[in-house]
Design brief:
This protein is an all-alpha fold. The chain is 88% helix and 0% strand. It has one domain. The chain has 2 helices and no strands. The protein is elongated, with a radius of gyration of 13 Å. The relative contact order is 0.18.
Amino acid sequence: MSKKIDAAVSYYSKQGKEILKTVNTRTDLSADELIRFGEEMAIIEYKLTALEVAKES
């Protein structure tokens, strides 16, 4: 089970890095895009936190 959790953490971490890379490199983001990316990052952070708690259990 630990390997599956580690794989999921790796996957979501990579997704978060890609979102940050997109936001940091684009200069023409609209407010709607910023909100959408923020919501996606919040979801990813929530999942990562849940996975870390599951890993400790």
